[in-house]
Design goal:
Helix content is 37%, strand content 23%. The protein contains ten helices and 17 strands.
Length: 406
């Protein structure tokens, strides 16, 4: 892999400055640089760096990766599995095998690779220097190392604690609705009997879930939910790990805010755009974040390219809204549907229904894979109700038939 860590900036003036080196920032930077724009990516970290994330690359993520970066997903970057198991409060509900293939990656490796692609496309890199302030009047970003970069369009892809979002709106997220996750990375030797199965447990956190994602050398295990409703989240992780036969004290625990379904209505202003977690584009049901990060990162860059080609950088935001709106619509629908999965009143009835409802199980996987949107759930629920009603009636009628004469 190419080394993206070499700073290649030779000027302080850029067409597009991207803040953040995750999938969203790399997608934006790659797209802008490939289009011939003077592009600079800024990140406070030096890559490779660790990142709290399950590292699930769904078929939707893979398709976006291949479309944006113009290459196939290298097998060395991921582990593949077509096995999924669903649980609720540690109780097994159902499994699906050979229905759809998921890819699992370590963000440390994946993000560094994406960054290398942006660098190879001609994007200048300023890594290891955070943002001290954003002067939107002068269209200038002041870095913590004293450097300055000027932009015509600024793309904030700097995560849930986005400095760019704070510069725009005074806060990077709403503390009343923000999610929070805790996660550990367990070497395979610690779980010798654990199969390469994606596990989702709908019941181990309030308005959230737990997960086990297999990796080439480890298992990523975590729990997450709405922050203010989970003051005992660490205890929940302790219990979740104990059910796997491992102790929390044996591992480093990572914690981070997660924008579960809190995508912004207005992800930017004029020539400043927000993408990925900075815009809140994380599905609150499936936890899908990488696909939406790449989708909105590219969309922000496409908007910048169109606005700059028209010599109207301040029109970038209005050009960004249509594609951003498509991603946001899916997430807002998920936010509505999560009441069925996570509401304390409905959680148990849903778990019982889900365990016997193959249509719902495959519908969940279809949404995760990007084959269907949440609007498809209305039809899935309707067909499932009809099927369940017929099954119930058949069982009921069988009990009412007279016994044969003996």
């Amino acid at each position: 892999m190419d080394d993206p860590m070499v700073e290649s900036a030779v000027a302080s003036e850029f067409d597009v400055v991207v803040v953040g080196g995750g999938p969203s920032g790399s997608a934006a930077a790659f797209t802008s640089a490939r289009a011939g724009l003077r592009t600079c990516l800024v990140d406070k970290q030096v890559f490779p760096r660790d990142k709290l994330c399950g590292g699930l690359l769904t078929p939707r993520s893979r398709a976006l990766f291949e479309d944006i970066f113009k290459q196939s997903l290298h097998p060395n970057l991921t582990l593949q599995s077509d096995k999924v198991s669903f649980f609720s409060d540690h109780r097994f509900l159902a499994s699906q095998n050979q229905y759809t293939v998921m890819h699992f990656t370590m963000r440390r490796t994946f993000d560094a690779y994406l960054l290398s692609q942006a660098s190879a496309a001609g994007c200048a890199m300023k890594l290891g220097a955070g943002i001290k302030s954003v002067d939107m009047t002068r269209r200038e970003v002041l870095l913590t190392d004293g450097g300055r970069v000027r932009y015509r369009v600024l793309i904030g892809a700097d995560g849930v604690n986005s400095t760019v979002a704070r510069s725009l709106f005074g806060a990077s997220f709403n503390p009343k609705t923000i999610g929070f996750a805790l996660e550990i990375e367990a070497p395979r030797a610690a779980l010798p009997q654990q199969p390469d199965v994606l596990e989702i447990d709908f019941g181990v956190a309030a308005w959230g879930y737990g997960w086990v994602f297999p990796k080439q050398e480890s298992f990523t295990i975590g729990v997450g939910g709405i922050h203010r409703l989970n003051p005992d989240l660490r205890d929940r992780l302790v219990a979740y790990l104990a059910a796997k036969g491992i102790a929390i004290g044996d591992f480093q625990v990572k914690g981070h805010y997660v924008p579960f379904g809190e995508c912004r209505q207005r992800p930017g202003r004029a020539n400043v755009l927000l993408a990925g977690d900075a815009a809140g584009t994380v599905d609150p049901i499936t936890g899908e974040g990488i696909a939406y990060a790449m989708q909105t990162g590219r969309a922000a860059s496409d908007a910048a390219i169109a606005a700059l080609n028209a010599d109207a950088p301040d029109r970038a935001f209005e050009r960004y809204l249509p594609e951003y709106g498509r991603a946001a619509r899916d997430i807002r629908q998920a936010k509505m549907w999560r009441h069925l999965l996570f509401s304390p009143m409905l959680k148990r009835p849903f778990a019982r229904a889900f365990s016997d409802a193959r249509m719902l199980q495959t519908g969940y996987l279809d949404i995760l894979a990007g084959k269907k949107g949440y609007d498809a759930l209305y039809g899935i629920f309707g067909r499932q109700i009809v099927q369940s009603s017929r099954t119930f009636l058949r069982k009921r009628l069988s009990t009412l038939r007279p016994a044969p004469p003996g």
